[in-house]
Amino acid sequence: MGVGIEVSTLNAWYGANHTLQDINLNIPANHATALIGPSGCGKSTFVRCLNRMHETNPIARVTGTVRIGDLDIYADAKPVEIRRRVGMVFQRPNPFPTMSIYDNVAAGLKLNGYSNRRVLDEIVERSLKDSALWDEVKDDLRKKSGASLSGGQQQRLCIARALAVDPEVLLMDEPASALDPVSTSKIEDLIFQLKSQYTIVIVTHNMQQAARVAEKTGFFLNGRMVEFDSTHKIFTNPSDKRTEDYITGRFG
Amino acid sequence: MRAKLQSGSKLRARIREGTDGLATGLAILSTVLVVAPLIAIFVYLIYKGASSLNLAFFTKLPKPEGEIGGGMANAIVGSGVLLALASLIGVPIGIGGGIFLAEFGRGTKLANAVRFTADVLNGVPSIVMGMAVYGLIVTPRMPFSAISGGVALGIMMIPTVTRTTEEMLLMVPHSVREAALALGVPNWRSVLSITVKTASPGIITGCMLAFARVAGETAPLIFTAFGNSNWSVALNQPISALPLEIYRYAISPYDDQHRQAWAAALVLVVLIVAAVSLVRYVAGRGVLKGAS
Predict the structure, then answer these.
(1) Is residue B175 part of a domain?
(2) CA-to-CA distance for B274 and B271, rounded, in angstroms?
(3) Which residue does chain B place closest to A78, by CA atoms?
(4) In terms of domains, do B159 and B14 share one?
(5) Do B179 and A84 count as a contact with CB atoms less than 8 A apart?
(6) Which of A20, A47, B239, B268 is surrounded by the most beta carbons within 10 Å?
(7) Interface of B with A (CB under 8 A)
(8) Which domain holds residue B125?
(9) Chain A residues touching B194 at Cβ < 8 A
(10) Contact between residue A32 and residue A202 where contact means Cβ atoms under 8 Å apart
């Protein structure tokens, strides 16, 4: 089951660049939350702070608190533990090129020392079914490389890989921006189904996509969160002038 | 006006086709020039050496100076022993160094020093390497030996393996590393199981290049492995090697030994090609459909 995320006074830097400034935000459990905003506004940095991927860059720095469920992720746990509880899907599909489809999905478990073959088989099948890829790949699980699939299939493979470690939160950083419309709608259908089991945070440039999949939407601008409300409110009656300017296409 | 334009464009088309043909021709010529020396060497070796190849060459020991016949069984086996020793030393250290340069030491002073050292080591003449190992390892208590020969060849493998490993690891996309980290895989595990695995075809090629290069080295063996006209696979005894035998036979005054030197050169080249092909075949067998 998903858990909620509480973010308070989160600040992040890349070198001297103050990319996130005093972000306060409550992301509800078992819902999809969309983050929108122009390029460079900090929304990708923000999700990367939720699984401590931000700090993998040597010049990056973070302050503030992030609570995921009852865990203060910057105080109580190691990055690897957080990342097992908070899955991530990236903008460009990034399957492991030398691994089979099966090994791609099982990678998170295998690389953390899990080896019970029967359980792995079950988890791989369930994850691929949950990511709506099973029917397309079930005959080539071990024969084909993850890199041999189409872009849309690769992205669903990456979702299956993230689901296989049984996370509570799923972060998606523009998961459909490199995909064609058909693959995009498959990913969106998937988000719709997955949010009953996981808390989903999706970064997107596509405002229609935010409107279609998310209950809550946050608008980021220049490293600050301008507005956070129900998606309906953001897109029909935003409180802040800047949000309105952005969603009506006046900039960005 | 129109006609003039057309004739102009016809001329231009012809010039373009001509340029295209010229470029294609040059590319083909270059290809031939690349392949020609290899084929020439092979053909010449077969011409000179094939007639002296017989079962005895592979099974018998060398005859004393001036006698006809005999073989190089000890040199073939000796080369195998020396190269195995060299690979045992050069491949793990080389790959380890490459992993350090690309993954853990990136941008540090130590990494820059290691990289510089590897490049300098790569440029050290092989005869100097032989003398250095002679000075460091060969002592009255441990005279000329297979071990010292293996060490000399192994050290020569290290820089090539290290630098190709580094280059190949740096070619692995950042997104693949991020994928592993985002799954909660510890960094060291991600490096070994994901990055190195993804780069392994290139790393294997680097090892094979280093292997093939030292397989033909003579100079570093003169003061280390020394050569041996009897059977010996003992690691603490002088050992024979094909390049050493080629050198010794080629400068001897006897025609039969000249012929055997040619045969040995042919065998050496064929064995190197066979070893490299075998490793590539074995390493390539696990590759999946569509894997890059």
Answers:
(1) yes
(2) 5
(3) B184
(4) no
(5) no
(6) B239
(7) 173, 175-176, 178-186, 189-190, 193-194, 197-198, 200, 287-292
(8) 58-284
(9) 96, 107, 111
(10) yes
